[in-house]
Amino acid sequence: MANFEISCEHVKVPNGDLQISSYIAYPVGEGTFPAIVILQEIFGVNAHIREVTERIASEGYVAIAPALYQRLAPDFEIGYTAEDVELGRRYKEQTKASELLSDIQAAIAYLKSQSSVKGDAIGCIGFCFGGHVAYLAATLPEMKATASFYGAGITTWTPGSGQPTLARTSEIAGTLYAFFGNQDASIPASAVEQIEAELQKHHISHRVFIYDGAEHGFFCDRRASYNRTAAADAWIQVKQLFSQVLQAV
Question: Which string of DSSP letters, residue by residue, matches 34-77?
Answer without folding.
Answer: EEEEEE--TTBS-HHHHHHHHHHHTTT-EEEEE-TTTTTSTT-B
